[in-house]
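Sample log: Diaminobutyrate--2-oxoglutarate transaminase.
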Amino acid sequence: MNVFVKMESNVRSYCRSFPKVFNRAKGSKLFDEDGNAYIDFFAGAGALNYGHNNEYIKKALLSYIESDGISHGLDMYTVAKKEFMTTFNKLILEPRNLDYKLQFCGPTGTNAVEAALKLARKVKKRTNVLAFMGAFHGMTLGSLSVTSGLDIRRGAGVPLGNVSFLPYPSQEFEGIDTLAFMRQVLTDDHSGVDKPAAVILETTQAEGGINVAPTEWLQEVSKICKENDILLIVDDVQVGCGRTGEFFSFERAGIEPDMVVLSKSISGYGLPMSLLLLKPELDIWEPGEHNGTFRGNQMAFVAAKAALIYREESKLEESVKEKEKFIKNYIEQNILPLDPNLYARGIGLIWGIDCSKLGGGDFAKEVCQECFSKNMIIERAGRGDSVVKLMPALTIKFDELKEGCKIVRESIEKCLIRRKREGDEKSSNCA
């Protein structure tokens, strides 16, 4: 690993948590260069909903490459793009009676967030945007401005303005009527908040600590936006593409956002791709007004089309709901009883074990390190990184899901015993 330490920038992150050199991956397992297998409860930060090297998607991708299909096409018309758009409309939009135009952005989710913010301001001719505390929307300047984490915001190096943050319906704001607060901000002529062009939100805050917004709350936010001529942008980069059960995370609320941001698992194979869905009347872009060299990843189009078909044929939505029941019951019956200070929340196949009352980020870090020592990849999220984040591939086999949950339980139990022993030793020394 000396070559990484010597040559790669200090900005590297995940490799510090998982200091192994990985060589291959299949399904829900990663293998290091020595052949050791690791259960993956991280899924490429949500980019691998269909698992590593999904056979169905891989076959379509290899066939396309072997046929010398277009590998790079900017935003030109191509067969790969046509087939993806046709399939997306047939399998995703039409069955839900959704009418969106598709804008292909740069390779990552943050670029589609940037496009959404730019377009909202252009349409409404207003500069302010409302975002929520606990939000994460990306690391480029526009996306970073609507991201609430102070540490990563400081990395911008410049002021991040034209955004007002509101409390999200999470544990941190328990007892606060966040909807009433939002209405007050928008109607009080002394709120100090300029009328926004848009509200941007995640229906479940992933990096914010797995905070699941109540269905009624989402419905009311949508209603407030309509009443005040404000666009609603839903960031489905991490919790979309089936992660919460349905393809779109907002489906459970029966709402229709003005714009939807997709990335990560939309490509189906971990390939770079981001997509902005926008209502047709909002499409007032001038040609090339928001573009990029890699805004049309042809191989991602091929993989994305295959993923959508695979999703239908494998009845993935039903499978996710079955696995959701298992993981919810397992956490409630086998993990939470370990200590009264443990809390859990989640939806679909994204769950968090909140350790904030057990030493916060330090304890959660210990748990994740213990999991890694047991050959499992799992990460943290939330304030102070105090939430252990369970996010396996949607295709994970039940025996692997059970084994992964067991490792999490055993790791938490071991860390609790260690903490108690250390506390007893400290008390004994003090005496």
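Observation: The two ends are 46 Å apart (CA to CA).
Observation: Residues 398-430 form the longest helix (33 residues).
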